[in-house]
């Protein structure tokens, strides 16, 4: 099921700007209405200006009016999971059942629900 997003995330990783870490990360997010948006990591010499692939993909979706995410695939050579900041951003635009898959260059994949990766998340509901 995640195969379509895997290929897109892998392709997105080829555009990564990662001169410092050399890590090439790609993400593909599918919105609730079936649109797909891609992102790659973009590093910056100040490090604080660096943005992860997952956030790039989500922000591209949001910037085009899509605020509900259905599933996301994150590709790295070694199959890294999303960082905490990216999980928090996912929480803003998806419920705990968001399907999060991360995979590596050998085809190994792990799929979890967002609520499994970020337990006791600080959600928009806390702001009401």
Summary keywords:
5 strands; 4 helices; 22% strand; alpha+beta; single chain; five-stranded mixed β-sheet; globular; 128 residues
The global form is globular
Structural class of the helix and strand makeup?
A: alpha+beta
Spans with pLDDT under 50 lasting ≥5 residues? none
Task: State the order of secondary-structure elements, H for helix, E for strand.
Answer: HEEHEHEEH
Number of helices: 4
Strand content: 15-25%
Question: How far from one another are the termini?
Answer: 36 Å
Spatial extent as radius of gyration: 14 Å
Major sheet: 5 strands, mixed
Helix percent reads 25-40%
Strand order of the largest sheet: 2-1-3-4-5
Overall pLDDT metric = 96
Number of strands: 5
Account of the 3D structure:
The chain has helices at 3-13, 53-63, 84-93, 114-117; strands spanning 26-31, 36-40, 69-75, 99-103, 109-113. It starts with a helix and ends in an 11-residue tail after the last helix. Strand 3, helix 3 and strand 4 (99-103) form a beta-alpha-beta unit. It is α+β, with helices and mostly antiparallel strands and 128 residues long. The mean pLDDT is 96. Strands 2-1-3-4-5 form a five-stranded mixed beta sheet. The protein is globular and about 40 Å long. It is built from four helices and five strands. The longest helix has 11 residues, at 3-13.
């Amino acid at each position: 099921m995640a195969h379509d997003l895997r290929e897109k995330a892998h392709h997105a990783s080829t555009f990564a700007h990662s001169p410092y870490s050399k890590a090439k990360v790609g993400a593909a997010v599918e919105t609730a209405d079936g649109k797909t948006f891609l992102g790659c990591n973009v590093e910056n010499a100040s490090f604080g200006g660096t943005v992860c692939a997952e956030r790039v993909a989500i922000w591209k979706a949001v910037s085009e009016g899509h605020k509900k995410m259905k599933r996301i695939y994150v590709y790295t050579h070694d199959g890294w999971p999303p960082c905490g900041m990216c999980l928090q951003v996912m929480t803003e635009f998806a419920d705990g059942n968001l399907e999060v898959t991360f995979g590596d260059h050998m085809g190994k994949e792990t799929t979890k629900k967002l609520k499994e990766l970020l337990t006791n998340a600080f959600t928009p509901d806390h702001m009401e």
